[in-house]
Design brief:
Layout: H1 3-20, E1 26-30, H2 35-45, E2 53-57, E3 70-71, E4 79-87, H3 91-102, E5 106-115, H4 120-126, E6 131-136, H5 137-143
Parallel strand pairs: 1-2, 1-4, 4-5, 5-6
Antiparallel strand pairs: 2-3
Helix pairs in contact: 1-2
Length: 146
């Protein structure tokens, strides 16, 4: 959540989405892990010809107010990338995917900051989802001093 991290991750995430040609209207995922990444990507897109909006998927429907599960400028019909901070089991992303689909969104795929490489990616792909990870746990470990 540092300014430097948001600037780097926002640009990397936006470029990954564009390189994959997912052509999304919005990005978001299950709070709290996806929030700063989605917001960084949306901010990075602000000066482009095709900005993307960010949204948050609550863990539970709000008991008061509008009673929404998805907060932010998400709209039914949006093509979205579900965002994950770290893919472990894939359960958080699957939960967010279901919420988006239930609200009338179309899921292009899942974009994660880190794939822990413990089966989550495969679980998402088994659900028919495309997955992009900006890095893998093994890449991070390989860069650590011995």
């Amino acid at each position: 959540m540092s300014p430097e991290g948001l600037a780097i991750i926002g640009a990397l995430g936006l470029n990954a989405l564009r390189d994959a040609r997912w052509d999304v209207d919005a990005v978001g995922g299950l709070t709290l892990g996806a929030d700063p990444i989605a917001y960084a990507i949306a901010y990075a897109s602000a000066a482009t010809q095709r900005p993307v909006r960010a949204f948050t998927v609550r863990k539970e429907t709000k008991a008061h107010g509008m009673g929404r599960l998805i907060e932010g400028p998400f709209q039914a019909g949006d093509r979205v990338a579900v965002i994950e901070d770290v893919i472990t089991t894939g359960a958080s992303a699957i939960r967010a995917v279901r919420a988006v689909k239930d609200a009338g969104g179309k899921v292009a795929g899942v974009l994660a900051l880190v794939d822990r490489e413990v089966g989550g990616r495969e679980a998402l792909e088994t659900e028919g989802l495309k997955v992009i990870a900006l890095t893998r746990a093994s890449d991070i470990v390989a860069q650590m001093p011995s």
